[in-house]
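Predicting structure from sequence has reshaped protein science. With that in mind, we have picked out one protein's residues alongside their backbone shape tokens:
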Amino acid sequence: QYLGSVMQIFGQNGGIPVGRYKTISSLLGDDSPEMMAVIEFDSPKTIEDMVKSEAFNSLSEQRERVFTKLNMIISQNM
């Protein structure tokens, strides 16, 4: 239910899903994510504003139940 709700918020903010990936093995390092989602947005500001929004923050309790650890990053093509 959380993933459906958060993906709707991403979409309302122009987010386009690129892919969702499940880690099948870790080759190096000790802290690999269980899963990773890549969502494309038009700008870093759009993402920052979305994460500060009431809609996104209203899911904080659900997010805490779903994920023991959650990292979000903004990256760009090189």
